[in-house]
Amino acid sequence: MLENLKEQAPDKIIELIGLYAADTRANKLDLGVGVYKDAKGNTPVMRAVKAAEAQLLAEQDTKKYVGLLGDLSYVDAIRDLILGDSVAAGRVCGAQEPGGTGAIRQLFELIKAADAGATVWISNPSWPNHEAILKYLGMNIGKYRYFDEASCGVDFAGMKADLEGAAEGDVLLLHGCCHNPTGANITSAEWAEVAEIALAQKLMPMIDIAYQGFGDGLEDDTAGVRIMAAKVPEMLVAASCSKNFGLYRDRVGAALIISKDEAATALSKANIAGLNRVNFSFPPDHGAKVVSIIMNDDALRADWASELEDMRLSMLDLRQGLADALRRETNSDRFDFIAEHRGMFSRLGLSPEQVMQLRSDHAIYMVGDSRVNIAGLPKAGLDSLAKAIASVI
Length: 393
Hints:
Blueprint: H1 12-22, E1 29-30, H2 47-59, H3 72-83, E2 92-98, H4 99-114, E3 119-124, H5 128-136, E4 140-145, E5 147-148, E6 153-154, H6 156-163, E7 171-175, H7 188-201, E8 204-209, H8 223-231, E9 235-240, E10 252-258, H9 262-279, H10 286-295, H11 298-330, H12 337-340, E11 345-347, H13 352-362, E12 364-365, E13 371-373, H14 382-392
Parallel strand pairs: 1-12, 3-4, 3-7, 7-8, 8-9
Antiparallel strand pairs: 2-10, 5-6, 9-10, 11-13
Helix pairs in contact: 2-10, 2-11, 3-10, 4-5, 4-9, 7-8, 11-14
């Protein structure tokens, strides 16, 4: 039987990790994989996480199942962190999921159960796993213009034009902040315009927010999400704690569902619980409990927010540093957009051939579309990186 399985195309980012690991050059540089790195190149465990884990180790006295929806104190904390008071709590239900990817998968399954014929509109480009999961589930995919290759900014006019062609009942997938892979984001005013389009076209927004706190700050990064939540009758949110809590391997995510009223909320809650049951039964508890401890302890929460802000400012400093270095090396403003982008990623606007030349000649690894992990930049090596980029353009 197993010989009938089809060969699977390798994930480009996972493949890049293997190529980087096999490279024996001492000067190699990994700008591909999306993890935060400190000045020493490490991905640290945050102080508040260590403290919360110590508390959990001391106090936890059982490993029994928590429930199909996971740790509800965690879910409530994530709801408040993202949505604030933009929507009545009674209209929101949620479930703990194994990472942001798990939340996305469960919400896609929920959409399919509600309307198998709905088209899910994703940005062009978007995080590759959005399209991969939708294709695996056999769902309809639409793409709206988003990134302008010439300016390396948002093609908002194209985005609006495409969304105005969406059909009633379709789903609009948006990145809550820190767009992956481009780093280019729509403004609060543009979020309000998109919300009006969603209302006029009767679209259901779905927000993927994986980088809250990495862009303009914990509160500012939710501005668009809250604008949308306050206006539309229904909305889905997939949240991740991988980046802003550094809990990558612990797979901590949440699916939030905003419904029209409390009766609809009860139905949504039962359905997301049912999906959890048939996919994995109970979500893993450790990481979610750690987040819950942090969010419900004033001192730990303040320390977490402080360290997260330091991480954000470090990435902004690296952005400005690389933009300045490239301006010096190219004697142009071609790469100034890097300082304006937000989050972990920017797409540099290099061709696949130039990306391959950086890899072969300079041991610099980035995704083929020239997406770079800003948090992976070497602060002391920005000039060298800029020289290498300038040499291939």
